[in-house]
Amino acid sequence: MKQSAAIPRRPGRPLSFDRDAAIDAAMRLFWQHGYEATSVALLTQAMGITPPSLYAAFGDKERLFRESVARYMTGGRAVAEIIDGAPSARDAARDLLRTAAIGDTGDATPPGCLLASSVVTCSAAAADVREELAAMRREIEARLRARIERDVAAGALPAASDAEALAGHVMAVIQGMSTLAKDGAGRDKLLRLVETAMACWPAASMPHFQS
Which among 80, 73, 69 is positioned nearest to 130, based on CA atoms? Predict the structure, then answer.
């Protein structure tokens, strides 16, 4: 019997989709539904690609989620810029809260915060994702706490100010505003909540002048 010639393998085809646009589409889905509720089927439909293309380009759903979070975090002013660039810890806290309120209520984006929503919806099966998101939140809180402590040390805030509680309060309000936005709260309400939250902030220390 004559042996048939071997069919040569076709070389790998380059990706035929806009990677940035695909990540944006995935980010919006994760933002809207959370990590676990966003299936690969939903992702490929929104991204306009096939499952093999998703796995070839991003590895798996978890790595795609990480890239989506990175895109989300670079979509506005960086947290470090907000905190370190503010003239005071109080201004840093208000700027963080206002940025969150505005981001939670965008006209062209899902309501709420991607980080907050995904943490809430992650089960024990997605422990790695939950811990990564929690670590991001802890890092933000730690940076704000350090900024508050610098103001206390400089005398700009009363010596009795509880830097840990103040930073934790800001993070709790940010988390709560995300939930309210998902429940339908508008930007005006969230911005009023920001001012209410700042009302509990300790008054700045008065400069001391020698007579």
Answer: 69
